[in-house]
Specification:
single chain, elongated, 3 helices, four-stranded antiparallel β-sheet, about 200 residues, about 40% helix, alpha+beta
């Protein structure tokens, strides 16, 4: 049976022959340098093999991991995102506008209540309630409402009124009651009742 020489990196490691010569044989390198042990020879040859391979770069690793190169959003995907955002805004905006109007209405109601209290204080020192043009009891001021006394106050009665201006005139309750005009009188009656809840 012929001898078969197994080599790694061009350096023979062992010979396989007949059954009586199955032990490993190592060749010493020629030269003046100090010879190495068989274990060192084999280890060095194996390292030479591994040094011949180039490591994969990051792009190659990503390609193997994901099956394809990574890419950004396409124009269609971007348009879908914009459409979804537009739908959400369209649904949320009316509720936001109603909330703002209701908050302004609350401010106007508070101003009417304060005006009514001041009317009682004014009447305790005078023979009649004050009109909206009375310099001793100025009427309230608000950017979205116009305050007035629609009828001339008397010694026993008055009515205070706040009329919404601009976009605030669209203010209404959930059941559709218009809250454009708010009123309160000397008896504490408030109209429209649904707008004061």
């Amino acid at each position: 049976m012929e001898n078969v020489i197994v080599s790694i990196g061009g350096v023979p490691l062992r010979q396989q022959g007949t059954s009586d010569r199955s032990s490993l044989q190592f060749r010493r390198r020629s030269g003046n340098h100090r010879s190495r042990t068989p274990i060192q020879e084999e280890s060095g040859d194996i390292m030479n093999i591994f040094n011949g391979f180039k490591p994969m770069n990051r792009r190659t690793e990503r390609g193997i991991k994901h099956g394809r190169r990574q890419r950004g959003m396409t124009m269609i995907e971007l348009m879908i995102v914009l459409v979804v955002i537009a739908i959400l805004i369209a649904l949320a905006y009316p509720s936001y506008v109603d909330y703002v109007r209701k908050a302004r209405r609350g401010e106007a109601q508070q101003l009417l209540l304060n005006w009514a209290i001041n009317q009682e204080i004014f009447r305790s020192n005078n023979t009649t309630y004050a009109a909206d043009n009375n310099a001793n009891l100025p009427k309230p001021d608000h950017a979205n409402y116009n305050f007035s006394t629609p009828a001339t106050p008397t010694a026993t009665a008055y009515q205070l009124q706040a009329v919404a201006q601009g976009d605030q005139a669209k203010d209404k309750t959930r059941d559709g009651t218009s809250c454009t005009t708010l009123t309160i009188n000397q008896a504490g009656t408030k109209t429209p009742a649904g707008c004061w809840d």
